Amino acid sequence: MKITELASEYEHQYDVLNAKITGLRPLLKVYTGEDLYLLRRRIKTYYDMAGQCKIISNMLMHYYEDENDEYDRFN
């Protein structure tokens, strides 16, 4: 597997996780008590996982770029 294919897979997982979050959000208005707490926890977990997928995807996409280019991109 090429590094760009791996980056694409992480990007795909990012999209899947965001779709799960979008599907769960309407339930926030319905759930109460412990169920609401567990739902919020699940959404936060998916949100954190999606963020990590996006970061890893970007790192892999730009893996072969010059280090100076990467430094300039963040400053």
Topology (elements, then pairings):
Layout: H1 3-24, H2 33-61, H3 67-74
Description of the structure:
Helices cover 79% and strands 0% of the residues. The protein has three helices and no strands. The two termini are 32 Å apart. The relative contact order is 0.17. The chain has 75 residues and is mostly helical. The model has no long low-confidence stretch (mean pLDDT 90). The chain is elongated, with a radius of gyration of 17 Å.
Tally the helices.
3
Measure the end-to-end span: 32 Å
Helix residue percentage: over 70%
Rg measurement, Å? 17 Å
The helix/strand series, from N terminus to C terminus, equals HHH
Residue share in β-strands = under 5%
Largest sheet descriptor: none
Average pLDDT metric: 90
Structural class: mainly alpha
DSSP strand tally = 0
Shape: elongated
Short summary:
The chain has 75 residues and is an all-alpha fold. It is 79% helix and 0% strand.
Which descriptors apply to this entry?
75 residues; mainly alpha; 3 helices; 0% strand
